[in-house]
């Protein structure tokens, strides 16, 4: 993830944002990363205040053949409740009043600074969706990696939707099939709030230092109340333990074979009103496209998705997400 920079804007920052005495309308965001995941995800309002409770059926009732005058034993299905929490992702933009008012277009100057804070929140949210852990940060929420963290051969457990790509070192990454939808995986927002980034212009405030000094600043507050729910884990799949060093050897990791296995794990369950996307980082995508050059395969096509031509696998868009790291813990 990119480093967002110093705490306050300096005068040098101000001059970098001007051209011939006029404020530049656009800034080339060298720290900007892709936000594809947030373009794909749906947002679901919590059903229990700031929490979301999902009831999952874990067992079916029995059905038997009955003879004439025979009895049918009573039975019932079994269910389990899962509670997902939301967290408050917040940041403040603080700029010296004199710095803003010396600009030809103060509003545009403040807007340019705001875009950096929104980008920072987007990147932090995507990182948390994959790697968030309540154990490590009680104010956040559990991401997908925490949920899909241990392999299992039991098809009734979430670990059965983890595919092992064979990596054993410390340079591992993952490819994710995520099905977004109210019945599948969703971002959450609390009851009574709104989805997405909320912005409040606090106007001019007076800051006081520890020694009693004062100064006037413009303050903007950015906030996002958000969580993650995996209602049906069967429609999402993790291809884990992909060794980056092994990817350099085209015969060591067959990405197409791994995608095919994941596709057939989720295919039946993803049909119920969901939208499935594949997520990987640019390193994996680079090696994957190199592997495809030596193949002729109708399963892969470049198609338009959200006004962009991108690679699809069996009509599922492959999305690039730099928040998926190459230093994941080995999944066993």
How is this structure best summarized?
The protein contains 8 helices and 15 strands. It is an alpha+beta fold. It is globular.
Structure description:
With 332 residues, this protein is α+β, with helices and mostly antiparallel strands. Helices cover 22% and strands 33% of the residues. 30% of the residues are buried.
SSE layout:
Blueprint: H1 11-16, E1 18-19, E2 22-23, H2 36-40, E3 43-45, E4 51-59, E5 78-96, H3 97-101, H4 106-131, H5 144-147, E6 162-164, E7 172-180, E8 185-189, E9 198-208, E10 214-230, E11 237-243, H6 244-247, H7 255-266, E12 275-280, H8 282-292, E13 300-305, E14 308-313, E15 316-320
Parallel strand pairs: 3-8, 6-11, 12-15
Antiparallel strand pairs: 1-2, 4-5, 5-10, 7-11, 7-12, 8-10, 9-10, 13-14, 14-15
